[in-house]
């Protein structure tokens, strides 16, 4: 991995903004500095805090319900798909599907090859056939380079190539937006006659989400395809295609999480008249086998969660261990990524609890003391904390040591200072938001976002992720981790804005610092609907920057490509959890329905 991960500039607002976005950050930047806690201030805060313990100050409540899946239920999970007979059958099916791929490469058209690759990707089984898929993509490229015209319907290949994270410069050339120019008239507009091809328009729509900053062709392609797809009567297209159109308009595949999308697509694929029975059987069986692995990992993290005592001792905080684990599945969806999934699930649980301490339960004096203890990383510092904070502090302290111990044992590297630095940065931004809330200050959108992309925890997650998955750990990379390169900021920005869209209204009702929506409304005087639309625009613009980051990473080391992919997957998982509201805290009906199908119920 290169020392400078990515050096693009982070601009929340592009230079060519529309009139509704002009001057959003024109107001002069006003930064509230965290006050330094001197020894005398600490003593005063301790005294004040002690008094507050005795008088039991009023506390806010997030009104979070208990976990939907308790310890006993998780420990009782049992599935037959971990048995040897299913593993043996899956191996047989992979051999048969490989034979199909070899045959298709020789006999099929470019369109058919790209559709088959896309099916394997959406079914969640393409990781078994990476060599065969690369050969098929090379075949498509060879035909294209030798003059075979690529049709509109074959634009699906553009999306496929990127989603497979191809690092081939030849394949990237096929994905260039310039290939769309042949479908535009002399005025630069897309030919209206193309609207008669619904399947091609759907592929064009999906590919348009690979746009990068300043890219006009793909933006026009999206507008063109969206208008036709939204207006096209569903009765004029077949039922299966109609299902795909609705799914794409709700959220494009480029923004979707691998595992939930695979579950959905397996059921859609089964209804198709051209379904390949061997491919379908493998997709179902592979999903169930991986689900069995997830269940064993869930049992492990639930054991750890129960041992911490945090759910019992801190009843005000969200008890969301299953959800925390599902977040980690969003970043690490390959079966062999068990250790990163487990450690990231634990990390997510601790982030959730500490976030609730700062956002809901703690007084400002208590929060200042907690941040001071985080800065010192001295177990003796917990004597200044109330009991509920002592338990949380020790759980965090032990988790950092557990993570560092494994790295020291495996690689001989001491990473405790780097892990601690990430938590210091996170808690500093938590405290900034607490100060804004307790002083009644509404920040500008720029002030808010400069703090919020860190307070949403993406930088901390990515720094921990590096140490969990990198082997070997590289000095140059470690030195750059806390400089927070652009892709880290993009990841945090998407996560933050998606979170705010799903949760801000409920958080304002209980009492919390203004979020992105409220900051915009306060600064610009617009309605909530206008503010939410603007936040969606910011998400879209940030995805363009992320796409550019992915393209830059394609020319660098293999680990950099993985790091950027994880950064992007954090954004995708955020949009999954917050698409219909607060799927992490309040647990939306969609999440309540989806989690059992992903983690507990096999596909038959």
UniProtKB/TrEMBL annotation:
Keyword field: Magnesium, Metal-binding
Pfam families named in the record: Terpene_synth, Terpene_synth_C
Gene3D superfamilies listed in its UniProt record: Farnesyl Diphosphate Synthase (1.10.600.10), Terpene synthase, N-terminal domain (1.50.10.130)
Biological processes per GO annotation: diterpenoid biosynthetic process
UniProt cross-references to InterPro entries, sorted A to Z: Isoprenoid_synthase_dom_sf, Terpene_cyclase-like_1_C, Terpene_cyclase_plant_C1, Terpene_synth_N, Terpene_synth_N_sf, Terpene_synthase-like, Terpene_synthase_metal-bd, Terpenoid_cyclase/PrenylTrfase
Annotated ranges, domain Terpene synthase N-terminal: 69-249
Keyword Kinase recorded: no
Coiled coil residues, start to end: none
Cofactor(s) required for function per UniProt: Mg(2+)
Domain Terpene synthase metal-binding: 306-545
One function term, GO molecular function aspect: magnesium ion binding
SUPFAM superfamilies linked to this entry: Terpenoid cyclases/Protein prenyltransferases (SSF48239), Terpenoid synthases (SSF48576)
Name of the molecule in the record: Terpinolene synthase, chloroplastic
Taxonomic source organism: Sesamum angolense
Lineage: Eukaryota, Viridiplantae, Streptophyta, Embryophyta, Tracheophyta
């Amino acid at each position: 991995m290169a020392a400078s991960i990515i050096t693009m500039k982070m601009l929340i607002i592009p230079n060519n903004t529309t009139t509704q976005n002009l001057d959003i950050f024109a107001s002069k930047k006003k930064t509230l500095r965290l006050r330094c806690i001197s020894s005398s201030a600490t003593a005063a805060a301790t005294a004040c805090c002690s008094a507050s313990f005795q008088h039991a100050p009023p506390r806010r409540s997030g009104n979070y319900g208990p976990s939907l899946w308790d310890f006993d239920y998780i420990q009782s999970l049992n599935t037959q798909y971990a048995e040897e007979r299913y593993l043996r059958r899956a191996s047989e099916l992979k051999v048969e599907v490989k034979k199909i791929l070899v045959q298709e490469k020789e006999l099929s058209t470019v369109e058919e090859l790209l559709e088959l690759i896309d099916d394997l990707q959406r079914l969640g089984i393409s990781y078994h056939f990476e060599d065969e898929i690369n050969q098929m993509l090379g075949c498509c490229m060879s035909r294209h380079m030798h003059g075979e015209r690529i049709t509109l319907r074959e634009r699906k290949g553009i999306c496929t190539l990127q989603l497979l994270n191809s690092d081939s410069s030849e394949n990237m050339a096929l994905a260039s937006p310039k290939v769309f120019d042949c479908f535009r008239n002399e005025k630069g507009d897309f030919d209206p006659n193309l609207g008669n091809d619904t399947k091609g328009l759907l592929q064009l729509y999906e590919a348009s989400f690979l746009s990068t900053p300043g890219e006009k062709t793909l933006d026009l392609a999206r507008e063109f395809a969206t208008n036709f797809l939204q207006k096209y009567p569903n009765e004029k297209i077949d039922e299966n295609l109609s299902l795909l159109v609705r799914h794409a308009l709700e959220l494009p595949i480029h923004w979707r999480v691998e595992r939930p999308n695979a579950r959905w697509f397996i059921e859609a694929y089964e209804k198709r008249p051209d379904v390949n029975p061997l491919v379908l059987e493998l997709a179902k069986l592979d999903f169930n086998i991986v689900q069995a692995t997830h269940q064993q990992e869930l049992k492990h993290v639930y054991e750890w969660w129960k041992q911490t005592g945090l759910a019992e001792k801190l009843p005000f905080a969200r008890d969301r261990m299953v959800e925390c684990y599902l977040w980690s599945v969003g970043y690490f969806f390959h079966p062999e990524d068990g250790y990163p999934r487990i450690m990231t699930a634990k990390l997510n649980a601790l982030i959730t609890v500490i976030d609730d301490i700062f956002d809901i339960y703690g007084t400002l004096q208590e929060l200042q003391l907690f941040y001071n203890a985080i800065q010192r990383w001295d177990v003796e510092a917990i004597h200044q904390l109330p009991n509920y904070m002592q338990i949380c502090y020790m759980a965090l302290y032990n988790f950092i040591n557990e993570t560092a111990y494994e790295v020291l044992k495996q690689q001989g590297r001491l990473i405790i200072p780097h892990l601690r630095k990430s938590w210091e940065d996170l808690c500093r931004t938590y405290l900034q938001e607490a100060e804004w809330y307790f002083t009644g200050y509404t920040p500008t959108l720029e002030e808010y976002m400069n703090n919020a992309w860190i307070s949403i925890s993406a930088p901390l997650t990515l720094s921990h992720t590096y140490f969990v998955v990198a082997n070997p750990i590289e000095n140059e990379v470690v030195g750059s981790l806390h400089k927070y390169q652009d892709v880290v900021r993009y990841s945090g920005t998407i996560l933050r804005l998606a979170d705010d869209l799903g949760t801000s209204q409920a958080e304002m009702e209980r009492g919390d610092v203004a979020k992105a929506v409220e900051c915009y409304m306060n600064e610009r005087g617009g309605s909530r609907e206008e503010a939410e639309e603007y936040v969606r625009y910011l998400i879209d613009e940030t995805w363009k920057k992320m796409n550019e980051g992915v393209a830059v990473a394609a020319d660098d080391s293999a680990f950099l490509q993985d790091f950027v992919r994880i950064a992007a997957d954090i954004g995708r998982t955020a949009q999954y959890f917050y698409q219909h509201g607060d799927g992490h805290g309040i647990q939306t009906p969609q999440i309540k329905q989806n989690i059992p199908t992903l983690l507990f119920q096999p596909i038959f």
